[in-house]
Amino acid sequence: MSLKLYYAPGACSFVPHSSLELAGATFEPALIKLHKAEQRAPEYLAINPRGQVPVLVDGDEVITQIPAIVLYLDGKFPEAGLLPASGVARTRALQTLAWMNNTVHPTFTHVFMPQKFTADEAAQKAVKAHAVEVYRGLLGEIEALAQKASPWLSGDKPGALDAYALTLLRWGGFAGIDPNSLPATWALVQRFAALPAVARAIERERLELNVFKG
Ligand SMILES: N[C@@H](CCC(=O)N[C@@H](CS)C(=O)NCC(=O)O)C(=O)O
After folding, report:
1. What is the pLDDT of residue 176?
2. Mean pLDDT for the chain?
3. What top-level branch of life does the organism fall under (predicted)?
4. How far is the CA of 47 from the centre of ligand 1 (A)?
């Protein structure tokens, strides 16, 4: 069965993208240009009616939602250690993955796309300003996790949590949050980015790691 990942540069799809590379998987990367609204083109909506990346296709299976995709890849490539294999360590990693996906990530959506939450332009500015401060606090929680990383967020192997941390910290730069203000996360993210497998995903997406502009 052939694997295909629909992704957009710099988007949350970096999590499965780098996970596929870490697993050494053979897959077809399919670029979706969000700024050109390709996610709302009829051909793409036929694949994912929610008009979002990422989508993982494995033969006849179409899988969406990052936690589900990560669990699927973890099951398919157990030796990669994208998540801890069992026990409380696995439960804790899933706890953090769910929180990154259902709390930190949507908070950034309020920063980046406040128009999703109100049509009122003045209210959009207020939503964004408030969300930046909430986001700063959430990155602070990731910083506390990074301070305890041993050496990666879910233990001895780099995996999905480190990939999400990279994505979320990078987005912080767009929100005016200096990655240097979160030194443990920034060090972890740079170590993760330097792994050859992760570097391949970064290169394919042409990502600049630090997008903070003073
Ligand atoms: N909960 C979804 C979130 C997916 C998501 O927010 N994708 C964003 C990119 S980070 C997207 O495709 N946005 C395009 C849009 O909403 O138009 C998941 O886990 O996959």
Report:
1. 97
2. 97
3. Bacteria
4. 14
Domains identified in the chain and CATH numbers: 3-80 (3.40.30.10), 87-195 (1.20.1050.10)
CA distance 42 to 111: 27
Residue 189 CA, ligand 1 centroid: distance in Å: 21
Query: What is the signed CA dihedral for 22, 65, 166, 200, rounded to 10 degrees?
Result: 40
pLDDT at 1: 56
Residue 214 binned pLDDT confidence (cut-offs 50, 70, 90): confident
200: pLDDT confidence band, cut at 50, 70 and 90? very high
Give residue ranges with CB within 6 A of ligand 1.
Answer: 11-12, 34, 39, 51-54, 64-66, 101
Percent of the chain with pLDDT over 90: 99
* 46 C-alpha to ligand 1 centroid (Å): 16
pLDDT tens digit sequence for 115-139: 999 999 999 999 999 999 999 999 9
Residue whose CA lies nearest to ligand 1 atom number 9: 11
Q: Is this structure's pTM higher than 0.90?
A: yes
Closest residue CA from atom 13 of ligand 1:
52
